[in-house]
Fold this sequence. Notes:
mainly alpha
Amino acid sequence: MFSANRAHHARKREHKFENEQKVNNKNRADDYYSYNKGYKKGFQDGRQKGIQEGIQKERERFQREDQERRKKKRRERFKDSVQVLMIFLLVIVIAACLSFYIEKVFLGIITISTGLFTISIINPLKESIKSYESVPYDIQADNSILTRVLAGGREIFKNVIKNGKSLFLLMLSCSILLGGLIGKYEVQARFVTGSEAFVDAFFHYENHTMKKTSDLSENEISGSQEQVGQMELPDITDQKSNLDDVSGSGSVETTDMLDVLLEETDISEDELSMVEISDSEIEQELGLPVEEYNLAFFREGEYSFTDEDDQQKINNNVQQFVQDVRSEKLVSSFDQTAPQDIKDEIANLSKREEAASSFSEIQTINSVRKKTYEDYPKRSFTNLISNSEQKQALVLVFYKGQQKTIMYHYVQSILWNMEFLKYAGNTKSDVEERLSLIAKRYEDIAFVCTECKEREYAMKLQKAFEYAAGQY
Length: 472
């Protein structure tokens, strides 16, 4: 009985153990399945994530490479554009220089530009005609002539833009034409002169408003204008009766002559009488250097004339002289290169000249301008110096100075007016005005210096420069 119970309990334990083993095996199988399933799912998720990350990296790499390619293409396009632009600028500069210094070249520039323009639109024009012919006739008839012309022009323009060669030739044609026009009409010189005048007016507005003269178009660096002005003189033939009062010693002894010289000017006898001058300065005789004498009276060189030459030959010589002088094309450098202390000194000269009460002080101021001009040329200086020389001549006429010295100052005025003609910024009206002033200075010499042998030369040159002025 006891042994039977023991056997029963043993079987129950075995049965229980077997059941537990089954349960444990099942749990382990479930755990393994779950683990294996989770592992697979995690592996698949990780792989999918890796693929997505790889795709994202590839996409980013592709975008970076695409951006680099675009940047490189833009840089190359910019480089090509700059090179083409430099070519066009070089063409403009060359065409401007040629037409600026050689007047007859302008016609050739127009011809070349027109030829290139014609070549540039031939192919686009053919394509436009073909595309127009493909349009049905009834559609063409529905449009007005203006509409068809505008449409044709738009089509030609599109074809020119598409065709690189045609576009290049068109731009080249425009560049050549633009350069020729710039040189022909002296655009750069006008710009420089206009900028110079603007700077003077802007920084010296007060001086301009305090002192204005309508006769002068050129201003000094300070912006103040000279009061000498441009002097108009009557015909010598109408004033011959005034020449009988000249003394045998060579000094001027008539007030009627001074009245003639001061007509239509801004200078009065009272102003001249306020200038202090010594007896030695009145009696001083100044002779012209040979080079200046020959230049002023055309005694030597290719423009010279003899007593036997007729007036027409003298006119032709003077006209050729003016053309050659104008071809020098000088440019003012004072504003760009002069030190500030020199600029300040020049700026104060006009104020000093207004207050100057002696003949020697006027000469000193003029000498400073001449010295400055040698190192730092400026077009307005020539005008100021010329007017100062003319004023000195009038002072000597008032104080009955020596004719030889009076002629010296008038010749200096003439030579500085000739220097004015050399500048590139002169317009035709500037040239005409300056030639008229030179003619009047010759008239002054012939009118005042009755005992000088140069009187006949001055009368002929007066007519020649009046003739030259009439050509402008």
